[in-house]
Amino acid sequence: MAIDKVGHNALNYQSKTIISKRQMKDAENYLPGGVTANIKYFSPYPIVMKKGKGAWLTDVDGNSYVDYLMGYGSLALGHGHSRMNDAITEQLNQDGTHLFGTPHLKEVEFAKKIRQYYPSIKKLRYTNSGTEATQLAIRLAKVFTKKKKIAKFEGHYHGGFKEVLYSINPPLTEAGAIDRPIAVPESAGVEVDGLEPFILPFNDIEGVEKIISQSHQEIAAVLIEPVQAGFILAEQAFMDKLRELTLKYGIILIFDEIKTGFRIALGGAQELYRIDPDITTLGKIIGGGFPIGLVGGREDIMEVSSPKRGFDVFEAGVDGKESAKDVLFHSGTYNGHPTILAAGLATIQELEVSFPQIVNYTMELRKRIEEVGLKSGIPLRTYGAGTVFNVVWNEEKKLRHYRDLLQSNTLRRKELDFELLQLGVYTKPLNRYSISVAHGDKELDHTISAYENVCYSFKEGS
């Protein structure tokens, strides 16, 4: 598929997205910054989409894009997959409602399917987002261990709430020593209150061991993305030793698999590393594009939220009943939503058949992107596993943690993404690529043609 060259500036972008620009300007009258989530914004303004089908998005100006964002990794089947649509329709027709507000059959059916691939999850609770799942996981760990602080890794993201909004993308001038990072707030309203997390150095087990051995009496849990940002893999020896340390000191090990669940492997990063965490959080793919999260893990930990242990917050104090403070209260009107669980089951069932196909596409795309980089003299490396990866503009082949990533040429990568957008290849600039069952030869050829155009153009202009 031939693609015309474009200039390395924003003028072409603005000329191709006139209605998006107008729509975003109008949105600012109603939404802060014109968006409903900060992550949806990029400069000079994001593209407003109108339709999705298969592996493609169409914007309000009529431009079409191969979609590699895929709802930040949530859409493993692509847009509008027939299996997904059929599952939703069947659930509504069969159940007669889209919300029971009571226990229902799919809650256990879905839990059984999750345990099939995540045997470390003995019991689980549903939430409405990955952020909620992480919050609940931390609460469970603190109640179970009776300790007040957590440890997280530098460069790792676990949701948009106060306790974990530290040291995600800190300036190196503020981040502290590489083996003993400092907790750097990443948002307004994140006040230092004595409960800020310990920050651990990723893929540096000596640094981790030093911090944990000195502070283990305060640490309830270690929270980790086993694959940082979904594409920087932990080393096996690092993960083995981390599991050993957390067991030694009675610290809860939480795997945040919201990005990696059913993407790195069907059994996520814990299948890859052959490690059973104490608690796992899942989200994104398991809802098939609908809002969901879940927390699961060891039975003794999960049982601290059981209402059979004591009184519900709405019952305590009534008719002389005792306090509810001895039970970890967790609730939510939409937890275990039947329509979402139907969509999630359909997604997992399709992945059971199609996962190898998606991995093959991913590996072919990665190989051909690196080939384009090599032939054009642009140092493009891909990092990831399974059906997710990222492209890094980097002279070195080694990428072990956040600080290595900062040494790559993120400015040029951002320019690359911006030019690819104008040639119909969509991901938010600097974001990872998530592949779906809908990606095929047409999408691959289009993507590589765009990469060839941009990379050779960059080389000529350098």
Which short descriptors sum up this protein?
four-stranded mixed sheet, disordered N terminus, 38% helix, seven-stranded mixed sheet, 462 residues, alpha/beta
Note down, in words, how this protein is organized.
The protein is of the alpha/beta class. 38% of the residues lie in helices and 15% in strands. It is built from 14 helices and 18 strands. The protein has helices at residues 10-16, 18-27, 70-73, 82-95, 105-117, 130-145, 205-215, 236-248, 268-273, 299-302, 338-376, 402-407, 410-422, 441-461; strands spanning 49-53, 56-59, 64-67, 123-127, 149-153, 176-177, 180-181, 198-200, 219-224, 227-228, 232-233, 252-256, 279-283, 293-297, 380-385, 388-393, 425-426, 433-434. Strands 4-14-13-12-9-5-8 form a 7-stranded mixed sheet, sandwiched between helices. It has a 4-stranded mixed sheet with strand order 1-2-3-17. A 3-stranded antiparallel sheet has the order 15-16-18. A hairpin with a 4-residue loop joins strand 2 (56-59) and strand 3. Helix 5 packs parallel to helix 11 (338-376), helix 7 (205-215) runs parallel beside helix 8 and helix 11 crosses helix 14 (441-461). It is globular and about 70 Å long. It starts with 9 loop residues before the first helix and ends with a helix. Mean pLDDT is 93; it is low at 1-8.
